[in-house]
């Protein structure tokens, strides 16, 4: 028997940021990250949703554009809270009307179209300066841990679920599936292509073979522009092995929230990775096994997920530590070694972090890690699931594990409190 767990995710970090926005706020972000759900939880007087055809909905009713304009402006003049979901679908003259009205009442505008959001906030926009901007992405790593901690007893499983459930649309699957990770491959195959297509449709862009090639290349480990260009050239998707040919595509994929860009420490180069582990997982399976065109073998897909999980844990904890410590997250890639995360304060290297998402270690691995991290005159951190699995404590390296992260943890008296007691 499957017992359903009703999970309502509270986005503490986003709530804190939202408290600092102005009376008029533009909420924007990639499709399916929970923007509408988040705003509906705030409370409002009127909520209007604009359909793709321009139809205006309020609850179960539809309104004419003229009736909507009249009602919305009157509500603002009465100092009420008005939400307009997918505001970019309204005629341009509505923005002129807002400009004429001025900042009255509380107006929350939601947009899933990132490029048009920039136009709304651009120099020629009639509403320039009237709105605060509020970008929403996936659920914050700290928040998903805090929400799920009381529902998942196994700490390792808690983290592995949290890695994927930062995508809000996966939470109902997790609630219903007897084995979430067995259900994940078929869910990804069914949903990710539609999600990507929907994102590109909203952005009024054509999803081409070049975009598809880039997403597969990044998932398959080609994560700097030179490697991506080489891969696309080998597939005859671009006419020359020239990184400048892929930079515009990478910029768009980053801008619409599919890829994230990580600076390579000390170099004027960037490392690209999928923002969402489930999107990465789908494109990795497609690049390696062509799952978009044939049936998924569940055992094979589960084996791949186990191989990829350390990569996803590295990304998860690198971003989490970056946010908790208030530092930028960069990556160190040299000819003969890599460091998972370099946490920086402007150009100053504050900490280097290695994430080892595994349960057994050899003495040789520990010595190699000590040697690698000893190159850096800063704080050195090794993150593992359980510190008792280490054959010995590495020298001059802090060891953090799930207990130290999920329980209250403070640094030395000279360091900032990392805030993990909130998780």
TrEMBL record:
Domain AAA residue range list: 23-117
Signal peptide as annotated in the record: none
Record-linked InterPro entries: AAA_14 (IPR041682), P-loop_NTPase (IPR027417)
Superkingdom of source: Archaea
PANTHER family reported in the protein's UniProt record: ATPASE
Identification of the protein by name: ATPase
Taxon lineage: Archaea, Thermoproteota, Candidatus Korarchaeia, Candidatus Korarchaeales, Candidatus Korarchaeaceae
């Amino acid at each position: 028997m499957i017992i359903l767990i009703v999970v309502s995710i509270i986005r503490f970090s986003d709530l804190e940021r939202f408290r600092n926005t102005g009376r008029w706020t533009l909420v924007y972000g990639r499709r399916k990250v929970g923007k509408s759900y988040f705003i509906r939880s705030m409370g409002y007087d009127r909520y209007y949703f604009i359909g793709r055809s321009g139809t205006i909905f309020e609850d179960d009713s539809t309104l004419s554009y003229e009736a909507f304009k009249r009602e919305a402006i009157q509500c603002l003049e009465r100092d009420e809270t008005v939400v307009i979901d997918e505001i970019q679908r309204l005629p341009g003259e509505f923005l002129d009307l807002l400009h004429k009205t001025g900042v009255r009442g509380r107006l929350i505008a939601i947009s899933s179209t990132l490029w048009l959001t920039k136009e709304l906030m651009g120099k020629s926009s009639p509403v320039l300066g009237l709105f605060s901007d509020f970008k929403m992405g996936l659920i914050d790593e700290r928040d998903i841990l805090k929400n799920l901690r009381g529902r998942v007893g196994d700490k390792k499983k808690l983290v592995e679920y949290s890695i994927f459930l930062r995508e809000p649309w996966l939470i109902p699957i997790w609630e219903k599936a007897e084995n979430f990770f067995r259900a994940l491959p078929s869910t990804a195959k069914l949903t990710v292509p539609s999600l990507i297509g929907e994102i590109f449709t909203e952005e009024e862009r054509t999803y081409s073979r070049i975009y598809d090639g880039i997403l597969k290349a990044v998932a398959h480990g080609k994560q700097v522009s030179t490697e991506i260009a080489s891969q696309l050239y080998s597939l005859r998707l671009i006419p020359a092995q020239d990184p400048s040919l892929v930079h515009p595509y990478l910029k768009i994929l980053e801008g619409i929230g599919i890829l994230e860009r990580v600076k390579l420490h000390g170099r004027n180069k960037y490392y690209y990775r999928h923002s969402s582990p489930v999107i990465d997982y789908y494109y990795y399976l497609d690049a390696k096994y062509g799952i978009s065109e044939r049936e998924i073998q569940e055992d094979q897909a589960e084996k791949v997920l186990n191989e990829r999980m350390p990569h996803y844990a590295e990304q998860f904890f690198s971003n989490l530590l970056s946010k908790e410590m208030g530092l930028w997250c960069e990556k160190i890639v040299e000819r003969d070694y890599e460091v998972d995360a370099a946490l920086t304060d402007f150009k100053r290297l504050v900490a280097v972090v290695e994430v080892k998402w595994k349960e057994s270690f050899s003495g040789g691995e520990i010595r190699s890690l000590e040697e690698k991290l000893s190159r850096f005159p800063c704080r050195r951190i090794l993150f593992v699931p359980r510190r008792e699995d280490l054959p010995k404590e590495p020298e001059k390296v802090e060891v953090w594990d799930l207990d130290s992260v999920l329980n209250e943890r403070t640094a030395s008296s000279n360091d900032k409190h990392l805030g993990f007691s909130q998780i």
